[in-house]
Design goal:
heterodimer; A: alpha+beta; Beta-Lactamase; 5 domains; 5-stranded antiparallel sheet; disordered C terminus; B: alpha+beta; OB fold (Dihydrolipoamide Acetyltransferase, E2P); 5-stranded mixed sheet; 3 helices; 10 strands; 22% helix; 40% strand
Chain lengths: 773, 178
């Protein structure tokens, strides 16, 4: 028998309502111990699980007690008794122990021990009993009379019945013999019948009771392995029914407890799984500050820092972390025992752990009744964060000082830190590019080179800056180009003006000579106009006589018209007369015909008369023909006279028009006379004006010479301006020419005049090109 | 036509008449009075002609055919006047001082009738050999064949010879119809 030493006299008292549970296999090796048992025993769970159960045996416990227990258990019976156990440190505690076999498939698989908190009286009684047993003054089981009494009391129900029946039968048999001797047969028959009936009822009651008990026992064992089956006879009204109902209620309650337990178990399983895969690193300890949970994130965190931590804590290992006491981090003040025990609320601290900057939040976990049952520690490795913060700080301060060449090292970063660093580097790149571009452009601008522009792609205010810069360069280029063009234009214009002014001067002289000639011509013109006026006076006289003649002609025409009318009237009379002649001829003809008719009727006697009638008819016909011809002639002459009258009328109208025209000519000639007089006065004025123009022309000639000199000076100034403008280099249509001029001017400063002359030639050639444009 | 030509025509006419006189003994020569209706020339037996008159306004008679112009008083005798131009549907009649009325008579025994016919103009008195008369064809004239005795060519002019009796009889019949 194992004797665990040492022992002390310190008693650890079980808290009320605490249940200590262990399970062992058939050989007494511990397979499970609940937290309460681990706590009170003083051992760690690792020390307990896998060890023989006698690791907690107290040496003062009598061996007989355990022998009794094992004997009972082997009979598949539960055992109950007071047990004194020993803690790791040697202290002791009393428990009210209940041990029973665990069934699985109707076979014993192991043993379950459930220990309840004993009362003080029970402890004292047990203490006395065990002391006596150890002193051989008592035994665990009763001996002598007490043992006989117990054995008698535990005789099975059937045997007891049999004994009682036989005891009852003995006086009956005596009575029966007495009745036989008296030969009272009816009574004998009745007696025998009732006795047999009593036996039959009794034996059936006993049989029923036994069956009932065996099935109740069976049911109870089934309950013990969680195999609850309800088909019990619950409707029975006797005591058996009550028992069945009791069993049934206990079974249902047990099922409910199991379901609740399962529910809570799955709840906590969910939470544990959630924690397991949570992003933040979490350690959980029990009340003894032993690490009982490490989630994946925490494992990875410590795995990363493992090598560094091992320099400080040599036996640190992630694999061994589970189950280790939290005090393994002996250099972390927040995890020290006193610190933890005083902890009431969550507390966050930051410290350096072997080169890793850790942030740690520790929180105690309390039971409902306020009992402290463990700690939750949340770890955060801020090493890279802190490093990146530092790097960004350096970079920003460098940028503040104008150093844009620095960047954040990306090689040791990943995830969010890497993308943050890349973004900051990109930002710096953009700023650097923008400033480089602007620097470059402004530098070139200072050198007079306007051919550059920013081509890089930017966004937002950088794009605005870039666009504005490009626009500014473009605008300046355009201005310079325009100024150049203007200067060039001024140059050529001033030259043209100079030559123009020379021409002007020459022309003004010519104009003066022309003016003198004009003056002479005006004199001649004046004399011509005077003679013209006299001629018009003569013309007036002639016109007046012509008008008188024309009026006379009109009167002649009027008399001619009246004569014509007289002729017309005469002709009409003649025509009438001829008509009369014609009628006479017609009547004569008719008469002659009638005569012919009469002659024919007269026959042979009328023959001579017929000849005469024929002659008369011929004459009548001839006179009719003559009359017809005369009529035609007269009609013709009437027609002629009519047209003659029309002609004469027209002549009269024409003569009247001639008279009017002649009068009109007369007035016109009068106007011409007046105009000639005015002309002569005008010509005098013109003469005066011409002499004034002569004076002015002389002054103009002098001014033109001055203007020529001025334009020459302007030409020289504009050439200088063009030369100055060549300092700027721009993109543009005529930049090539200007750059050529610029190189000529700079490369040959000695032959300055020559180059100027050449450039003029070039400029002229250029203008010829323009003309061809 | 010139005067000279007319004179020649007259001479021809005289010669014709002379030849007619010469052959009158044979009594085969018939004299016809020719007149003009429209463009055609017609002839009637001169013995049927009573008188040739110039047109005078007529007294209108009510309820007679449109070509019967009315009646005139000819020296006490009431003579009906018809317009042949309208009767033969030849031309629109015009009445001028030169319009002529030929007064015709039928000589059928004691029962004689007198009637004036209006023509455009009277042309001539022509003498025709009976043998020169040709029978009328079935068509070609505007006057129905029943009025025409025959056709004769005089100086290359075609003259239709009208049968005065038939003409006047027809008028009577038609009048009777009324």
């Amino acid at each position: 028998m194992k004797i665990n030493m040492p022992i002390t006299n310190n008693e650890v008292v079980m808290k009320p309502n605490t249940i200590l549970v262990t399970r062992t296999d058939l050989k007494g090796i511990i397979t499970f111990a609940n937290d309460a048992f681990v706590e009170i025993s003083g051992f760690t769970r690792e020390e307990l699980v896998g060890s023989s159960h006698n690791i907690v045996r107290h040496p003062e416990m009598p061996a007989a007690a355990f022998e009794d227990m094992w004997r009972t258990l082997k009979q598949n019976r539960p055992w109950q008794g007071m047990v004194k156990n020993r803690t790791k440190t040697g202290d002791y505690y009393w428990v009210n122990a209940n041990a029973m076999p665990l069934f699985e498939n109707n076979a014993v698989k192991g043993y379950l021990s459930v220990r309840l908190t004993p009362s003080r009286a029970e402890i004292d009684a047990a203490n006395q009993l065990y002391r006596k047993i150890n002193a051989k003054e008592a035994t665990l089981h009763p001996t002598g009379l007490a043992a006989v009494h117990k054995r008698l009391a535990e005789i099975s129900l059937g045997k007891k019945m049999a004994i009682s029946a036989s005891l009852l039968l003995l006086p009956n048999a005596l009575l029966f013999r007495e009745l036989v001797t008296t030969e009272n047969y009816p009574l004998i028959g009745t007696f025998a019948l009732t006795t047999l009936l009593a036996f039959w009822i009794m034996s059936s009651a006993i049989r029923t009771t036994r069956n009932f008990f065996s099935s109740a026992v069976h049911e109870l064992y089934r309950l013990s392995v969680n195999e609850f089956s309800p088909p019990l006879n619950l409707t029975r009204n006797d005591q058996f029914g009550d028992l069945f109902r009791g069993i049934y209620v206990a079974g249902v309650k047990l099922g409910d407890d199991i379901a609740q337990g399962k529910q809570e178990n799955s709840n906590s399983l969910r939470i544990i799984q959630g924690l397991k895969y949570a992003e933040c690193s979490i350690l959980i300890t029990n009340a003894n500050s032993e690490i009982i949970f490490v989630n994946q994130a925490a494992e990875q965190l410590f795995l990363r820092a493992q090598q560094n931590i091992q320099t400080i804590i040599p036996d640190f290992s992630v694999q061994k972390l589970l189950g280790s006491p939290i005090s393994i981090f002996h250099n972390i003040p927040a995890l020290q025992k006193t610190e933890l025990e005083n902890l009431q609320h969550s507390k966050t601290s930051q410290f350096d752990l072997a080169g890793h900057t850790m942030q740690l939040a520790v929180k105690p976990v309390f039971e409902k009744d306020g009992e402290r049952i463990g700690y939750v520690a949340e770890w955060l490795d801020r090493t890279i964060e802190v490093k990146v913060e530092l790097e960004i700080e350096h970079l920003v301060s460098a940028i503040k000082e104008g150093d844009l060449s620095k960047r954040i090292d990306l090689s040791d970063k990943n995830g969010f830190m890497k993308s943050l660093s890349v973004n900051i580097n990109d930002l710096t790149d953009v700023i650097e590019n923008v400033f480089n571009d602007i620097n470059h452009i402004i530098g070139k601008l200072a050198e007079g080179d306007l051919t550059n522009s920013i081509h890089s792609e930017y966004q937002g205010v950088y794009a605005q800056c870039k666009d504005n810069m490009n626009d500014a360069i473009l605008k300046i280029s355009e201005f310079i180009l325009q100024i150049r063009e203007a200067a060039d234009f001024v140059n050529t214009s001033s030259q043209e003006m100079a030559s123009g002014n020379n021409n002007l001067s020459n022309r003004v002289e010519q104009q003066a000579a022309s003016l003198e000639e004009t003056a002479a011509s005006m004199q001649e013109l004046s004399s011509t106009v005077i003679s013209n006026a006299e001629n018009t006076k003569n013309a007036t006289v002639v016109v007046k006589s012509a008008a008188q003649l024309a009026e006379k002609g009109g009167e002649v025409v009027k008399s001619a018209i009246s004569a014509m009318q007289a002729i017309n009237e005469s002709s009409n009379r003649i025509a009438e007369i001829i008509g009369v002649i014609d009628e006479i001829a017609f009547q004569t003809n008719l008469l002659a015909l009638n005569a012919s008719v009469e002659a024919a009727r007269a026959g042979e006697q009328g023959r001579g008369f017929s000849v005469v009638a024929t002659e008369v008819r011929n004459l009548a016909q001839r006179s009719a023909t003559a009359a017809k011809q005369s009529n035609e002639l007269i009609q013709n002459s009437v027609q002629e006279v009519r047209s003659g009258t029309a002609f004469v009328n027209e002549t009269g109208a024409a003569l009247m028009e001639i008279v009017d025209s002649i009068i009109h000519v007369g007035t016109i000639v009068g106007h011409i006379t007046a105009a000639s007089n005015e002309q002569s006065a005008g010509i005098n004025q013109v003469n005066q004006a011409v002499s004034q123009m002569d004076d002015i022309t002389q002054q103009n000639a002098a001014l033109a010479e001055q203007a020529a000199a001025g334009s020459m000076a302007m030409s020289e100034q504009s050439a200088k301006m063009t030369h100055l403008l060549n300092f700027f280099k721009v993109n543009g249509k005529s930049s090539a020419v200007y750059s050529a001029k610029a190189t000529l001017a700079t490369s040959k400063p000695a032959a300055n005049k020559q180059s100027v002359a050449k450039s003029k030639v070039v400029a002229n050639a250029n203008f010829e090109d323009w003309e061809e444009f | 036509m010139s005067e000279k030509n007319e004179n020649e025509n007259e001479i021809d006419a005289l010669e014709d008449e002379n030849s007619a006189k010469k052959s009158s003994d044979t009594s085969t020569i018939i004299q016809y009075l020719s007149f003009v209706l429209g463009k055609e020339e017609y002839g009637v037996d001169i013995l049927r002609v009573q008188e040739i008159r110039s047109w005078e306004p007529v007294s209108r008679v009510p309820n007679v055919p449109f070509y019967e112009k009315g009646v005139v008083n000819l020296r006490g005798a009431i003579v009906p006047i018809i317009d042949l131009r309208e009767r033969f549907s030849l031309s629109k009649p015009e009445y001028t001082p030169l319009t002529v009325v030929v007064v015709l008579q039928t000589g059928s025994g004691s029962h004689t009738r007198i009637m004036g016919v209006v023509v455009d103009s009277v042309s001539d008195v022509i003498s025709i050999e009976r043998t020169d008369i040709q029978s009328a064809p079935d068509f070609g004239t505007k006057v129905s064949n029943e009025f025409i005795n025959g056709l004769v060519s005089v100086n290359e002019r075609m003259v239709m010879l009208l049968d005065v009796d038939k003409l006047l009889l027809l008028e009577t019949l038609e009048q009777n119809d009324y």
